[in-house]
Dihydropyrimidinase
Amino acid sequence: QPFDLIIRNANVVTASDSFPCDIGVRDGRIATLALALELKSARHEIDAAGRTVTPGGIDSHVHLDQATGDGSIMADDFESGTRSAACGGSTTVIPFACQLKGQSLRAAVDDYQRRAYEKALIDFAIHLIITDPTEDVLYRELPELIAEGYTSFKIYMTYDALKLDDRQILETLSVARAEGAMVMLHAESSDCIAWLTERLLAAGHKAPRYHASSRPMLVEREATHRAIAMAELVDVPILIVHVSGREAMEQIRWAQSQGLKVYAETCPQYLFLTADSLGSDNSFDGAKCICSPPPRDAANQQVIWNGLENGLFEVFSSDHAPFRFDGPDGKKAHGEDVSFDKIANGIPGVETRMALLWSEGVRGGRITPQQFVALTSTNAAKIYGLYPRKGSIAIGADADLVIWDEGRAVHISNEMLHHNVDYTPYAGMQLSAWPAITLSRGEVVWDGEPRGAVGRGQFLPCDSPAPAQVRRRKTELPL
Ligand code: DUC
Ligand code: ZN
Ligand code: ZN
Ligand code: ZN
């Protein structure tokens, strides 16, 4: 039986290994890995001589077409967002279905499945965001949805429209424990932020750069500590998303040293931006880099690199939250004179994530190629229940692959990107690598041009993530 595709002379890198081989693909899956694959016939061949081939990226934290409720509109939907992801070497994204307060979880899922319908160019799973944990939501809807493949959800400790109080968090964590789901936590202390914001605004400090002053590391540290304590009490694994620097990391390091299953995610903005990116004067330009938690300083960038290298972080995702700078529904939705707390929160990055980490991390000598694969793909597949279909180069896995172009100067500009945002925070950076070809289930979706039909991406129901599986718990809950 002929292959549909053979990739010859690849230098394959997985999360554990690196080896030369040919990859035979049939029906969208990896059918054979062999040295000098004799096979005569394949409909297509790609010569990857001299090139590294990694698993396609899994960007497990992206916001696409997500309702914001504050007059801003996300610039990327499931079409432009997944196209941009593919052009940057990702083959799976996991955006969010965000429950509105008062809305059923089912209605939220249906809403986002409609938003995704026939749009995605690459495969996607969906995380839930739980904002209204009523009894019906927690004890009827959530178990049903987890059984249907929505096995991870995010909860917020800040933002009035999204946050849960500690009692609600405990209750929600205990459902995750019972049902084997993975909980992602946005850990920032709501009241501290509100108090600081009020005082900054009273003093007339309203420019974008004060966004960073309103959310110092302390507020992230405090909430991270509290989240860990609650997860320990309930005895359930959690993942702290978008960790920005030293103080939250110290809490996570402590938890991990106690044997608690506390996983952590960080993002490119904490390696490549600082609070200075929000502006050194009162100009509005800094709004481009407003995200939460805010980027810190050069010393913290180094601490984040250390955490990627030493294994504190499991996941490197983009937290792509796309808002245009100009226009009526992006960063300027309420004008340029508006205070920092009214500016849409988030920055784009789904397309630049992989190349930034390959270029500055691997080629920069900070992490190994295997660590790169673990951080950008394999670990997320395991933590969110997509492994081994996604996240590896192995027989039977989906043929989701990146063939790298290395050693070429890549000057980042927004013009080269395919998102629907009118800027990139990384403009001007000089990289030494970019994906040459991205394959999704054996189909070329990027080879210097975006390829692949709109709507070809499939929804991926997730298994109960290995670390969250019910049978692995060590203790009974105290009653
Ligand atoms: N949290 C996110 O996860 N993304 C964008 C902004 C935020 O606060
Ligand atoms: Zn063909
Ligand atoms: Zn968040
Ligand atoms: Zn996010």
Summary: The longest helix spans residues 217-234. The chain has twelve helices and 17 strands. The mean pLDDT is 96.
